[in-house]
Amino acid sequence: MRQKIVAGNWKMNNDKDETKQLIKDIKKSIKKLSLKSTRVIVAPTFVNLALAVKRADDTKIEVVAQNMHQAKSGAYTGEISADMLKSIGIKTVILGHSERRSYFGETDAILAEKVNAILENKLETIFCFGELLEDRKSDNHFKVVESQLTNGLFHLDGAAWKSIVLAYEPVWAIGTGETASPEQAQEMHAFIRSILEKKYGKEIADNVSILYGGSVKPGNAEEIFSKPDVDGGLIGGAALNADDFTAIIKAI
Q: 123-147 pLDDT, tens per residue?
């Protein structure tokens, strides 16, 4: 059975005090929820990761990193290694977010290296991918998604997939207020599962969690999450408010 996951990507938001307060508020608001089959994840900024891990200790909240460098160490000013993350208790890293791809030039080849480093360090990744508006308008969205998955992940063997969560994010629906319809989300998630099955077989395809990331809000989460191939969400803006984030968790 695939895991249901609601992951909040805080991006470049929240200072130390705001991080403490938001985790406190989420802890309080999810306390009465039954989360036996749902993972609740938050991804604060690097400077607040250790604090967040400490504050989330002994709760249902998992703290993950927003990015990681592929090298073990070295002259990479401003970067963070796997060993650094592991030393503060981080077990999962988001890779390939559209903002990392577009603003920081992360290519499929770079992401393949990062995925290799994740697996070598026995970490898990939430691997992001998705098409631009022009890709969808030109009816190339399936080709783009298949290419990103093939180049970034399909060099792996089947055993690696126990450490991979996929996050489909239509780039045109991130921070724009636009959202793919539940039918569009399901269509793409079903396609993703079909190419996984073609490459790795039905068992792996059926067991990989695929999250939707594109302006999920309390008002649309239930309908999106009701689709059979949507296993949860990678949440942006709505994850910065404990009540909204909890409403989305309830919707799953």
A: 999 999 999 988 988 999 999 999 9
Catalytic hit among 97, 99, 131, 141: 97
Residue of 106, 131, 169, 189 with catalytic role: 169
Strand order in the sheet with 210-212: 61-63, 38-43, 4-9, 232-235, 210-212, 164-168, 124-129, 92-95
Buried b (16+ CB within 10 A) or exposed e, 229-248: bbbbbbbbbbbbbbebbbbb
Say how far apart CA 176 and CA 239 lie, in whole Å.
16
pLDDT of residue 174 exceeding 80, the answer is no
How far apart are alpha carbons 80 and 159 in whole angstroms? 26
The question of whether 169 is a catalytic residue gets the answer yes
Structural contact between residues 37 and 4, judged by C-beta atoms closer than 8 angstroms: yes
Q: Residue 204 has what pLDDT?
A: 98
Q: Kindly report the pTM of this predicted structure.
A: 0.96
Which band of pLDDT confidence, cut at 50, 70 and 90, is reported for residue 215? confident
pLDDT in tens, 230-245: 999 999 999 999 999 9
Helix-helix angle 16-30:242-251, to 10 degrees: 40
Tell me how far apart the alpha carbons of residues 206 and 126 are, in angstroms, rounded to a whole number.
Answer: 17
Structural tokens at position 230: 């949507």
